[in-house]
Fold this sequence. Notes:
Layout: E1 4-5, E2 8-9, H1 10-20, H2 27-32, E3 37-43, E4 48-51, H3 53-58, H4 78-92, E5 98-106, E6 112-123, E7 129-138, H5 149-162, H6 169-176, H7 180-191, H8 195-213, H9 218-224, H10 230-241, H11 245-253
Antiparallel strand pairs: 1-2, 3-4, 3-7, 5-6, 6-7
Amino acid sequence: MTSHVSGFPAQEKRQQLASQMANVFFSESLFDAMPDIVFFVKDIDSRYLVVNHTLVRRCGVRDKDALIGRKAEELFPASLAASYAAQDTLVLSGKKEIHDQLELHLYPNRSPGWCLTQKIPLRDSHHRIIGMTGISRDLAMPDQRHPVYAKIAAAVRHLNQHYTHTIAMADLVKLTGLSVAQLERNFHKIFSLTPRQMMVKIRLDAASGMLAETSLSITDVAVACGYQDHSAFSRIFKATVGMTPSEYRDVMARA
């Protein structure tokens, strides 16, 4: 059955509206009003075309003109820029879209903030990729009104208390009395994270603090945060933070 809106097929109505719009980037103004969301549009060469005020503030510049037409390597530390550019290349090549990527972002004052990032390609009428758009949304406070909040909160406390050890999903199932499917679904509803993402966040919160505040070796930090394999720790840290543990320590030392 064909969907209709006001007597017209929905697809036809959408195309008609698009042809009449004076500003295809109307969403820029909408995202300007959302201080917990970074929003951007980039061209095929990964240059910023559209940004919102949140990204401007977090880049530590005065206005949007300071970002428009520039690439990540012109705005961020080399290690971070390389990570962002690698993501952009995957999206712009059509090889991968980024969905709910847990990331630890460093703000201008070097304070860390956790985000969930989405990046997708933009295509023309011939389905050719002509750019990309993305958002990074700050992790929200947990929904404490949820009916099973107490059970999920107990699981999070368990992760916080035992993150130096291997924790199996079966341990959380036994603790909460929920099935695996119920556990994963309610975890995401309450914390916007999967149990695995929560474990990564807890461990890397601890690791980033140790890297910034102690002189422990990278190997010792890895072991203290539940990683028996130094390379696995460095790989997960770089994938999440955008730089290696050593690079992170150097950045924080210069703060």
